[in-house]
Design goal:
By secondary structure, the protein is mostly helical. The chain has one domain. The chain is about 65% helix and about 0% strand. α2 (about 35-60) packs across α3 (about 60-75) and α3 crosses α4. The two termini are about 20 Å apart.
């Protein structure tokens, strides 16, 4: 793997991680997770794979701008998941229903 270009290495790693069964939807309240392992898997791994998919689709700079837009729009406020989706859609100029559905998908991520 050391000889792979970065993009190929990331694709291999995220592809492998995406095969891990992830039963819990990401919008589950933290106290409802069945274990600390499930919380870590969903909160960190599932989220990282999702951001990777967005970056692969829209480009890292565009996704960075979407995060900045979301942050600026919602700093010092109490946002909900729909607010992030709405901010990202405004910043990227696209409907992101299918991408946000991935976060609720059960089983393997990809």
């Amino acid at each position: 793997m050391k000889v792979l270009p970065l993009a190929d290495f990331q694709s291999a790693i995220y592809g492998a991680l995406g095969q891990i069964p992830m039963q819990t939807p990401i919008d589950t309240p933290s106290e409802k997770y069945v274990s600390a392992e499930d919380y870590g898997l969903i909160g960190y791994i599932k989220t990282a794979i999702w951001v990777y998919i967005l970056e692969a689709t829209f480009g890292r700079e565009s996704v960075d701008r979407a995060f900045q837009y979301y942050f600026n729009e919602w700093k010092n406020k109490h946002s909900q998941p729909i607010d992030m989706k709405t901010s990202f859609e405004k910043a990227l100029g696209r409907n992101l229903d299918n991408y946000f559905k991935l976060l609720k998908k059960e089983g393997g991520f990809l």
